């Protein structure tokens, strides 16, 4: 496994946010964390790369406890795309170059610049390369953030609501891009999402959080309407259209 999470707990003061969360993220797969607002999805992601320190339990990268690793070492294995990306007045090229920081000293080496060029070409971002982040649309910015994560050359990718501010077309494009990257580069991705239909379309494995605990997990063919209803407090059906699952709310009463 690329990433093993073992009985992870996180508390803020006396408030227990995450309670005994265990799962493993596999290379070549997108693991999607699902659950209602405020359940702890972002908190869990931040515990995975130790932006937040779990109060109990372990997160292991290829068997190594992240609690015993320096932040720079963790950053060589885990790239993190936060929910609100920074929009500093720097170009896309420079933003992507920041992804090389865990690998370089004070100054970029020729191989760092070559890596950034290669990622820009791979994602077709040549036209954006010299554009400042402050003048980018949400979709453009998200692509730059993904490019920076790729330039970081990690085996694990964490993304917090990567399509939150995107229109339908860009949402599909970005999720398709993430899925291709994960499969082609054999990365293990863990992402949070609210759009259940997009999640079921592009994810491989699903974790449902409820009341701070892992309520249910499963691959695409193991997700049931009951799991969704119990977690979101709303009755749903799962229909199929052209082989794709579609979650349809049945009524708005609490399940
Ligand atoms: N900086 C903070 N200080 C105090 N409490 C916080 C902080 N950040 C989050 N919380 C609380 O921790 C809990 C989990 O928040 P978190 O952001 O992880 O949830 P989430 O599932 O990602 O929510 P959403 O779907 O709305 O983004 C919530 O009760 C939230 O109010």
From TrEMBL:
Recorded GO MF terms: ATP binding
Keyword terms of this UniProt record: ATP-binding, Nucleotide-binding, Transport
Family membership noted in the UniProt record: Belongs to the ABC transporter superfamily.
Protein name: ABC transporter ATP-binding protein
PANTHER family given in the database record: METAL TRANSPORT SYSTEM ATP-BINDING PROTEIN TM_0124-RELATED, MOLYBDATE IMPORT ATP-BINDING PROTEIN MOLC
Database matches in Gene3D superfamilies: P-loop containing nucleotide triphosphate hydrolases (3.40.50.300)
Record-annotated ABC transporter domain positions: 3-236
Source domain of life: Bacteria
